[in-house]
From TrEMBL:
<comment type="function">
    <text>Required for flagellar hook formation. May act as a scaffolding protein.</text>
</comment>
<feature type="compositionally biased region" description="Polar residues">
    <location>
        <begin position="15"/>
        <end position="29"/>
    </location>
</feature>
<keyword id="KW-0966">Cell projection</keyword>
<feature type="domain" description="FlgD Tudor-like">
    <location>
        <begin position="87"/>
        <end position="217"/>
    </location>
</feature>
<dbReference type="InterPro" id="IPR025965">
    <property type="entry name" value="FlgD/Vpr_Ig-like"/>
</dbReference>
<comment type="similarity">
    <text>Belongs to the FlgD family.</text>
</comment>
<keyword id="KW-1005">Bacterial flagellum biogenesis</keyword>
<dbReference type="Pfam" id="PF03963">
    <property type="entry name" value="FlgD"/>
</dbReference>
<dbReference type="GO" id="GO:0044781">
    <property type="term" value="P:bacterial-type flagellum organization"/>
</dbReference>
<dbReference type="Pfam" id="PF13860">
    <property type="entry name" value="FlgD_ig"/>
</dbReference>
<protein>
    <recommendedName>
        <fullName>Basal-body rod modification protein FlgD</fullName>
    </recommendedName>
</protein>
<dbReference type="InterPro" id="IPR005648">
    <property type="entry name" value="FlgD"/>
</dbReference>
<keyword id="KW-0969">Cilium</keyword>
<feature type="region of interest" description="Disordered">
    <location>
        <begin position="1"/>
        <end position="29"/>
    </location>
</feature>
<dbReference type="Pfam" id="PF13861">
    <property type="entry name" value="FLgD_tudor"/>
</dbReference>
<dbReference type="InterPro" id="IPR025963">
    <property type="entry name" value="FLgD_Tudor"/>
</dbReference>
<feature type="domain" description="FlgD/Vpr Ig-like">
    <location>
        <begin position="107"/>
        <end position="178"/>
    </location>
</feature>
Amino acid sequence: MFINPIDTSALDAGKTTTSTKPDSATNPNAAQDRFLKLLVAQLSNQDPMNPMDNAQMTSQMAQINTVTGIQTLNLTMQTMAEQFAAMQTLQGTTMIGRTVLSEGSKLTYTDNTGKGYFDLGNAATAVKVEVVTPGGQVVGTVDMGAQTKGRHDFTWDASKYTGDKGALKFRVTATNKDGAVTATNLMQSKVTGTGSNAGALMLDLDTGSTVKYGDIRAVL
């Protein structure tokens, strides 16, 4: 079917823009309005000897309905995502003040006793914890012997160490008959604040770090 070129100058006559007008590129109502104007213009300029048939018109109506539906769905999902993020942040405030475990190698101290945690990937016949300075110097050792798969904690007598205890870290060496056993170091910290980043709930810790809520291994 041949359709004469459409003169859309009349459609745009009197068109004005303001800073408060919705974005026509994402506004479903604006998109539908543009389609109807173009459809009317097509009908007005079609070849009388070869007019648009009903199938073509129905196809175009179905297309605009599909586009409008997708745009409306996108706007609805965006609104729901924003509301979910706000609710998630609000619920996260219940974590403030709670003590949690996350990946890390810092010790926590009660008086002169340091404490740490770790997860073993498999059972081990020999487990050793070493407390080290930032430079790697070993200042304390805890021999834990055989340990089962899973989470364990240890304590270290720090009364004889006169340096900066807050700078110390620990490392775990575990082995069994098959060789080395994977050990994941965990540190204890307190939640001081919450927030949201890219839709994920974030927790601020008293160690100065920020972790995703999903990375918290346990709440003590």
